[in-house]
């Protein structure tokens, strides 16, 4: 099994690889944009980094836990495609399609418009609207 720090491409799909994409964010570097934060959160789902997902979730909407480690059936994340990124100074919207499969089920698409806010120099996920 490969160590996580050699992942190329990055789990979010970026060909520069994990160490130059989502890795530094997972280690605490602030995301420069809401899109970068969104990509790093997708990678965190792939890598089951529940701590990171909760840390980047705005306190006003953050769940107590996600229980990723015990989720059944476990999702397999198949890819991420960012469709749109709109941002002002303190808030942003990112539209994306993530593909995943639960257990041995069929691949499905998760199409979401996520809202983000920036506070004290850091972006946070607020909530998302799932599109059909
Ligand atoms: Zn990445």
From TrEMBL:
Every YchJ-like middle NTF2-like domain range: 33-128
Pfam short name (any one): YchJ_M-like
HAMAP family reported for this sequence: UPF0225
Family: Belongs to the UPF0225 family.
Stored PANTHER family: ADENYLATE CYCLASE-ASSOCIATED CAP C-TERMINAL DOMAIN-CONTAINING PROTEIN, UPF0225 PROTEIN SCO1677
Name this polypeptide is given: UPF0225 protein SAMN04487997_2690
Organism: Frateuria terrea
